[in-house]
Every structure is written in C-alpha cells, then in structure tokens.
Amino acid sequence: MPPKTHEANTPRKESQQNKNSPPSLRNPRDENATEEIKNVFPDKNIVSCLIHWAVRMLHEHGIDSPRLDAEIILSHLLNCRRIDLYIHPDKPVELHEVISYQKAIQRRAQRVPLQYITHHAEFVSLNFYVDERVLIPRPETELVVEAVIKRSQFLPKETEIIIVDIGVGSGNIAVTLAKKSDNARIFAIDISPDALAVARINAQRHGVLDKITFLCGDTFQPLAGYGIESKVHFIVSNPPYISSAEFGDLQREVKDHEPYIALVSGQDGYQMFKHIIADAHAWLKPGGFIIFEVGEKQAQPVARLLEDTGYFKKTNLIKDHQHIYRIVISQMEKTCG
Ligand code: GLN
C-alpha cells in the first residue's frame, strides 16, 4: 500500500495549498453569471480554450501539474492522444464533452486522483482499470512482481508455481504475475468484495481469469479447503502499512479518496504484517518466499518480525527507485514445515 499520488513515490504530507472551494458548474452563458463564474468557464468550446481554462482552474486549486492533468483528462474524454491536442488546438468540442470536462476538472480540483478520473493506471506496462474501490498501483510495487519472477526462474520448468497475494486491490500484482508466468496458479485474497470486483475486471481485461482464484476474507482464512498448506511457493503482499497517527498527514488525494482499509494498519502500521507473518509458515513450502512491500523505515522491523518467528532466516531488502528500502524478501527455512 503505497500512499502517494501519481507524481510521487513516497508518502507526502499535505502542503500549504490554496484551499478554494471547487469551481462553480453554473452555465456561463447565463446572462446573470457573475465575472467570477465566467472566469470558471472556457471562452470558446475549442481544445485550446478548454485547456487554458482548466490549467487556470487547477493551478488556482493548488494542483502541482495543472497542464499535464488538464491535457490527460481532455485527451481521455476525447479519446485521442495528448499530441492531438497540440496538432488540432482549434478543434471544436461538443457541448456534452465540454460539460464532462468541466465536471472532471472540478473533481481534479477537489483532489480526486487523476487515475480515478481516467480509470487508468499503468503497472509493469499493463493498463489497469481503477476506481475509488481500490488503491492506485504505485511504481515501487512493480519490484514485488520483479522479485517473484526472478526467483521463480530457479524452479524446475514444469512446476506449477503457487502464489498467494494478500490484499489484491486492483489485481495489479496477481494479474501481472499471471500474465508473466505461464505456470502460475494464483490465489488472490482481499477482505473487500469491492476490491475483488475491480481485480476481476482486470483479470478479464488481461485474459488471466482462469489462472486466478479470487477469495474474499481475512488474510489466509479463505484458503482453507484448497489443500495448499505447506505448498505455496510465494506469499506476496503490499498490505496496508500506514499508522493511524500518520494518516492525517497524507496528501489529500490519498487520504480523501483512496480506500482507508487499503492504507491504514492499526496504531503503529504493523498490524497486517504481524497478522500475515504469524501464519505464513503454515502455507509456505519449505524454501518458499514471502515478499512484502513496506513503508519507509519499516524494512528492518519487518525483517526482524520475520526472523523472530524462527521460520525465516535469509532476509533481503531491496531499495526502490528513490533508494529507500521498500521490499522485504524472506525465504522459509528448507527444513521447516
Ligand atoms: N495489491 C494492491 C497494490 O499493490 C493493493 C494493495 C492494498 O490494497 N493495500 O496496489
């Protein structure tokens, strides 16, 4: 669970920003419209004017990258490439599209993440559907996928690789692993039925529904009855890891719009790690791996939690693109289980 928006890799605190109220949606051509309302509406319904208006609006509401966001949203609504907005700046835009654009820009001004507006998030070069039911996939989570793929190459070719993903969210980890590994059998668990519905959309989109068993419940509990005790090659999880105290300091995009349940894990942020680590050994094959994404400064404590069980000895820590330890990989003792 990586608490950031599309721009940043690490949790960001809310900065001092213009906290104006959202722009009005009143009809600007209304003769009673005030100057203020005219200001919040494009002069002409053509591409360049719409963008100009949106940039101004987003800038006034403290959005960091107003032009980029304005262009991405318009190209999404017009179903064109961003470059087309530059090639055809005078292209007329239909009134219903102008209204949709105005609503979308208003949502962005209210700090709805861009990805929830476009319903698009890229993960390992795959396009994932996202909405407010799930966490937006983050680039550092790609390292979890990479770690599994790297280690599965050492398994005999014909092995069916059993993977358990706890907290599947949008399905980014499970679906990507199903796509990249021919012989993976994946159990994708989430406590939120809403999240599972989104993960299924993505599994279908990428043609891997038959490789993933979606289960609703708390950590390993829904695995009972599948006969995979002591047979799992990889347990992967990007669990909630923010402490309830830190939650209030997150960016508005995150704290006001992403699912709380996917972000926060008790008072210290370690509740889910402890919960997963307590039972992991019963499901892993001896020599199997547990791979976690963790928050800043959590790598060493999580490694210690794993080693304190007595089941895990070899723990590796991997840095993210910002050189912060964010991935913990631990192998279960070969003699255990
Ligand atoms: N597995 C999803 C992700 O990595 C969801 C994680 C979560 O909900 N905490 O983005």
Describe this protein's structure:
It is built from 14 helices and nine strands. The protein has helices at residues 35-39, 47-60, 66-78, 82-87, 95-109, 114-118, 142-152, 172-180, 193-205, 244-247, 252-257, 260-263, 271-283, 299-308, and strands at 121-123, 126-128, 161-166, 184-190, 212-216, 232-237, 284-293, 312-319, 325-332. A seven-stranded mixed β-sheet has the order 5-4-3-6-7-9-8, with helices on both faces. Strands 1-2 form a two-stranded antiparallel sheet. The protein has two domains: 8-112, no CATH class; 133-332, Vaccinia Virus protein VP39 (Rossmann fold), CATH 3.40.50.150. It is elongated, with a radius of gyration of 23 Å. Helix 9 (193-205) links the parallel strand 4 and strand 5. The protein starts with 34 loop residues before the first helix and ends in a 5-residue tail after the last strand. The protein is of the alpha/beta class. Helices cover 38% and strands 17% of the residues. The chain binds glutamine.
List keywords for this structure.
7-stranded mixed beta sheet; Rossmann fold; disordered N terminus; two-stranded antiparallel sheet; 9 strands; binds glutamine; 14 helices; elongated; alpha/beta; about 325 residues
